[in-house]
Amino acid sequence: MTMKDSGQRETFESGAVRDTDDNKSRPDLISPFMLERLGLWMKAGADKYGENNWMKGLPVSRCIASLYRHLMYYMQGDREEDHLMGVIANAAFVAHFLCRHLHK
Question: N or C end of the chain, less CB within 10 A?
């Protein structure tokens, strides 16, 4: 088994040592309230379309169109759906598809 190593160490008051956090992702900085709302939005989508249906692949253009519609409805004052989470979910789908494409 291998473990990634930056070659840099941080020593704590207790004497414990770890690899540094430099240049590492910080998901701990994402709002837990937003994550809960997004999780509820994703659950609604899973109930409607099946779990992880979006991961089968969608045209980015459809995600962008949906993102814009949700933004437009939110800006118009429509609160029947959590349109902000529709914006975030569609943006996340696009980011996922683009990252997956870049890592092939």
Answer: N
